[in-house]
Amino acid sequence: MTHVFRFTQNSDDTWRDRTVKGLSTGREKLGSMANTSRMTSYQRREQLIEIGRSLFAAKGFEAVSVEEIASTAKVSKPIVYEHFGGKEGLYAVVVDREMRALTDVLINALSDPQAHPRQIVERTALALLTYVEENAEGFRVLTRDSPKTDPSNSFNSLLGDIAVRVEDILTDAFKRQHLPAKSVPYYAQMLIGMTVYTCQYWADQRKLSKEQLAAHIVNLAWYGLSRMEAKPELRYESEKAAREAEKQAAREAKAIAKQEKQGKKAAKSQEKAVAAGDDATDGTTVTDGSQAVRANRKRQTNQTNQTRRTNRKNRKARTNRKNNQQLTKTDIPSPEMTLGEISGADCVFQGAVCAQNRAPEPHMVLR
Known about the structure:
By secondary structure, this protein is mostly helical. It has helices at residues 12-32, 41-59, 66-73, 77-84, 87-110, 117-134, 136-143, 155-176, 184-204, 210-226, 239-280, 291-329, 344-349, 351-356.
């Protein structure tokens, strides 16, 4: 690249300053682009790998072309073909490097058999998040779309290898908790999928620190693992739960029908009782026909009848006492009374008494 500088002859210092400034700017541009005259084959290869990783992370494999790679590296297309044989070869190298780096990180986190199981979960989650934080482009390459001719060392194969290590750890934990080991592979895939997709989301939405997110991952994974059932069942959405729900609904419908039938029967009985009560009393009609109204009415009737009986009994008792008092106050003639002292009315009223009195003795004198 040739740089042309214009200068005046006022001063050599001015020319020297402008020359140094122009050369410095050129070095900065060459530092960010390829300089074919100075790069070795190894440096050119590394440069192409870095450029390819950035393009694959930003656009995906299908959207990147060899022309774009060569243009970004400031080289011709044959240079790309010379080093990698094409876009697929460059992509395979990028993926292989990222997988080896991520595999080393995860294997180291999972390779301490003496550590507490929770410590292993924490360490693994934090190691994966650290890799995502320090190798954001590499992680995007691994999780974005891959070519149709997916190489054998793809991200899925990496997750499969990690799943095997996780299975070994879970198998020992399941044996200690007396849980069936046949479900271990599924739980391993659940843990890996949960963690990987969470990291993928966090790579673009970093609202939490990696320590905070790792704590959330461990919270869900650890407490889920520590409280597992030996024979888990669906409580609401299984066929067994559906059958039980149908039976419960049938029982409730039967109970409701029975209550309605009893209610209708009770209503008819109430209507008959109200009609009979209306005929027996003053002929008024109870419109509501409620049991409380009838009971209150019957109670009032009984109280009225009892009051009437009590009043009649009291009147009769007062009459008897009055008659007895009158009999006590009546002047019944004593033996010393003469017959002349008894009036005719008294004799008529007390005839029976007079007849019962003894006959007057001889010394009685009639006047």
